[in-house]
Write a structure and sequence with these properties.
With about 400 residues, this protein is an alpha/beta fold. The protein is built from 11 helices and 15 strands. The chain has helices at about 15-30, 50-60, 80-90, 105-110, 130-140, 185-195, 260-275, 280-290, 290-315, 340-350, 380-390; strands spanning about 35, 100-105, 120-125, 145-150, 165-170, 200-205, 230-235, 245-250, 255, 260, 320-325, 330-335, 355, 355-360, 370-375. The strands form 4 sheets. A 7-stranded mixed sheet has the order 2-8-7-6-5-3-4, sandwiched between helices. The chain has a 4-stranded antiparallel sheet with strand order 11-12-15-14. The chain has a two-stranded parallel ribbon with strand order 1-13. Bound molecules: D-malate.
């Protein structure tokens, strides 16, 4: 019997677990010390009323013979897929309901989709990057080529011939850097993928935070993308569903490799490995895509955007170099005086109880940077902004 020894090539702990462990150790040593946690991008506001009502009603329905549901369709109920297709249609993107696969989270999709691709594929992962992209490929033993994202390219690298790869990861608005690709830039990636026979895995989990009108929310707003892209999106950040769990992946029928429909291949994969998201959660997700749900979720987004504005303006006033915060819930700032990311993490935690995520945890190009989420409570954001402003003054 042999283990999958590729797992031994992973770091000892997943980044956010390492952060959590350090914070827990600190709390044990400093009982009673206030912690301001702006580390993992977890929401802090409760889900909106329409989602609560929809989940409650669906739960009551499960207790009645006439409305009880057993196993659902593994790709998601039609009522939710229709609402998702309408959401895309409102941005002039036509998606068929059977191109949508409902899941329990973007993380599961981003890693799970690799099941249907050969281990011989080479994948292109930006550096810095959300660790799931690289770690799930390391687990499979797939070759990774890292794409440099840095201040020179404003953390928005563009394709170059030397980066030819089979699977290309793009996250926009980007986690961790908060940078957002324009339509013109995404078009370059789409052309590159089509001419290299690659597939783009487009992570749109943060698109709800885009406020600039011209910026694309979906790769499918870009001409030619349906023959080369898969999109992943989630209710976690747009509707506060990190604890509810609901996401979706869009695989267009036009996406074909080696004469095989990628949509059909994924359909096979989920029918073997997945029994679908709970009916109750799908009803809650449906409700946030109604007009009323949209309005209620906008209130959540407005709150987090104001958090981002407060943090950004403090950093600006303190002349700190940073990215993101405008169309993104993440702020990616340069550490002061060339301090290393983990040293800055320790400094903020030990002196002020403020927690962020060290940039180097996202890759070598993240060294010297630090990420804050703006999903915190307002009083924590105000306090953290005051402290960080003070560090730099
Ligand atoms: C993050 O902090 O990068 C994300 O919240 C983690 C996640 O979504 O899994």
């Amino acid at each position: 019997m042999k283990i999958n020894s590729n797992y031994l090539n992973l770091k000892d702990n997943y980044l956010f677990k390492t952060v959590k462990k350090k914070v827990n150790d600190f709390i044990l040593k400093n009982p009673g010390k206030k912690i301001i946690n702006l580390g993992i991008g977890d929401v802090t506001l409760p889900i909106c009323k329409c989602a609560v009502d929809a989940a409650n009603n669906a739960t009551i329905g499960m207790g009645r013979a006439e409305t009880f549901k057993g196993y659902g369709p593994d790709g998601g109920y039609e009522f939710l897929r229709e609402k998702i297709a309408e959401k895309y249609y409102s941005r002039s993107v036509k998606i068929k309901t059977d191109e949508i696969f409902v899941s329990d989270g973007a993380k599961s999709d981003i890693s799970g989709i690799l099941d249907i691709f050969s281990l011989e594929n080479v994948c292109l992962v930006p550096d810095p990057v959300y660790p799931v992209y690289s770690d799930s490929n390391i687990m499979d033993g797939r070759q990774i080529v890292y794409l440099n994202a840095n201040e020179e390219n404003e953390f928005l690298p563009l394709p170059e011939d030397r980066y030819a790869a089979d699977i290309i990861y793009i996250c926009s608005p980007n986690n961790p850097t908060g940078s957002v690709y324009t339509a013109e830039m995404l078009k370059k990636w789409v052309n590159f993928a089509n001419s290299n026979d690659s597939i783009i895995l487009f992570d749109a989990a943060y698109e709800a935070f885009i406020s600039e009108k011209k910026l694309p929310h979906s790769i499918f707003e870009i001409e030619g993308s349906k023959t080369c892209a898969i999109e992943i999106n989630s209710f976690s950040k747009s509707a506060g569903f990190t604890g509810m769990r609901c996401a979706y992946m869009i695989i267009p029928h036009e996406l074909v490799r080696e004469g095989v429909s990628i949509n059909k291949l994924w359909g096979k994969r989920i029918s073997v490995k997945f029994n679908g998201v709970s009916y109750v959660i799908q009803r809650a997700a449906e409700s946030v895509l109604t007009n009323e749900g949209n309005l209620q979720c906008k209130n959540l987004l407005t709150y987090y955007r104001e958090n981002a504005r407060i943090t950004s303006s403090t950093l600006r006033n303190s002349k700190v170099r940073f990215f993101g915060g405008e169309n993104s819930p993440y702020i990616w700032m340069k550490c002061p005086e060339n301090i290393k990311s983990w040293d800055f993490f320790d400094y903020l935690l030990e002196n002020f109880g403020v927690v962020g995520v060290p940039g180097s945890g996202f890759g070598k190009n993240g060294e010297g940077y630090f990420r804050f989420t703006t999903f915190g409570k307002r009083e924590d954001i105000n306090e953290a902004a005051r402290i960080i402003g003070g560090v730099f003054s």
